[in-house]
């Protein structure tokens, strides 16, 4: 399937510091960035890391004999289907990497001025509408410098604590219900995020998901080298990661689902047969309407524009709080 070039949007927040507060010319110019060799490398590395850390699911229950009045989605027992969820502002309010940075700051990994720059980077990505390579490189290098020389096991242990401190209460109940609907159908569910694969894996494990595709930082002997394998798992690299994982897992992308809030993830959403815009930014909302994709918005108690919703998700939402129950109580029309 040919992938449409994503309309650049403010990307996810990245943990790291910029080396300068000056903005080179062209930072706020909008660019189209197709998949590159580094994107493919990042995607393949993320897929391999995800498979190594995934949680095996129990055998799916047999489908009910009686045919429903309308087709159920997700389809129970469809082993060739899976679901891929973006993390920031799709599964969880805010940026996982920013919350992780707050936790590292609390543990004296860096200084207050660095934390202020992390906050500024969130603002930049929300307002700039571009993915300038020079700025992305600054963010990447700053983030890597923080973890360079630290043990992977140390960051994993700290990540567990940070999840409890800053992230657990920020998970959208409605999106979690959607993920649970796929799990209940016997399908695997993967997070797909630019956050480090270690952080993403912790979140996936805590939510009971299969595993996570995330940015892979190089380590030797269990110690971070300060380099990445490929590039951050962002934009086209996410699509490459999903493609690589689907091939390794024997999935049919036309039967899979993907969920995201950002126009940057249009390449990933376009890969699957069931794309969903969750808490969408304005460009993704516009694109989803044009393409007839399903939209859900959990940022208020009201239903957003409704094109469709998995029927099975209505049951799971009841346990997720009043807002999620209101948003999910009706079946897909």
Write a structural description.
The two termini are 27 Å apart. The model is unreliable at 1-32, 63-70 and 301-333 (pLDDT under 50). The chain has twelve helices and eight strands. The protein is 42% helix and 12% strand. The longest helix is centred in the first third of the chain and has 17 residues, at 37-53. It is of the alpha/beta class and 333 residues long. The protein has helices at 37-53, 96-106, 112-128, 133-147, 152-167, 173-184, 197-206, 236-249, 266-271, 282-291, 313-317, 322-328; strands at residues 82-86, 188-196, 211-215, 217-220, 223-228, 257-260, 274-278, 294-296. Strand 6 (257-260), helix 9 and strand 7 form a beta-alpha-beta unit. The protein is globular. The strands form two sheets. It has a six-stranded parallel sheet with strand order 3-2-1-6-7-8, sandwiched between helices. A two-stranded antiparallel ribbon has the order 4-5.
| SS content category | alpha/beta
Which term fits the overall shape? Answer: globular
Q: What does the radius of gyration come to?
A: 19 Å
Regions with little confidence, pLDDT below 50 for 5+ residues: 1-32, 63-70, 301-333
For the report, how would you describe the main beta sheet? 6 strands, parallel
Mean model confidence by pLDDT:
75
Overall helicity:
40-55%
Terminal residue distance: 27 Å
Number of helices: 12
- Binned strand content: 5-15%
Order of helices and strands: HEHHHHHEHEEEHEHEHEHH
Count of DSSP strands: 8
Strand order of the largest sheet: 3-2-1-6-7-8
